Amino acid sequence: MSCIRHYASLKIDPMILTKINEILPGVPYGIGNSREFLTACKEGNHEKVTLMLESNKWFAHIFDGSGQSALHWAVRRGHTRIVRILLAAGTWIDSLDYIGRSPLFLAVRAENLEMIDLLLLNKASFRVKTRAGTRIFEGVTRAEVKALFHKHLKKVGFAESDN
């Protein structure tokens, strides 16, 4: 349901929402040149990513054989500029791979403070759990990561007991 709200927030015509499965890739690499696009995201090739998104905005929603989106890969590789491009293109910030990891989960595990901050500023959900039930900030020991998380919690009005 949250993905439908996401596409509605992008001002996609409600009549198209009923046919969303015909538009969006429902299988890994579901659009021609998907591998090329994911490779550009993995390599941090912002010119190619921008050009490909200009030719087909749906590249922002493709995923690979493990369910990882272009956003997952850009976060994993620490490509902040690619992440910004993908977010501006409307990629779903809380997309989950096949084991339930969100891009924010990957940023937290990598302890990438800049990426964590960017994703939280763009309203990534910190409440998402993996399929195994692991919370995003569970097991974090680095003080800077914890401090950043608590800063964002306060900003959105959550008490520590809410997380």
From TrEMBL:
<feature type="repeat" description="ANK">
    <location>
        <begin position="99"/>
        <end position="131"/>
    </location>
</feature>
<protein>
    <submittedName>
        <fullName>Uncharacterized protein</fullName>
    </submittedName>
</protein>
<dbReference type="Pfam" id="PF12796">
    <property type="entry name" value="Ank_2"/>
</dbReference>
<dbReference type="InterPro" id="IPR036770">
    <property type="entry name" value="Ankyrin_rpt-contain_sf"/>
</dbReference>
<dbReference type="InterPro" id="IPR002110">
    <property type="entry name" value="Ankyrin_rpt"/>
</dbReference>
<keyword id="KW-0677">Repeat</keyword>
<keyword id="KW-0040">ANK repeat</keyword>
<feature type="repeat" description="ANK">
    <location>
        <begin position="66"/>
        <end position="98"/>
    </location>
</feature>
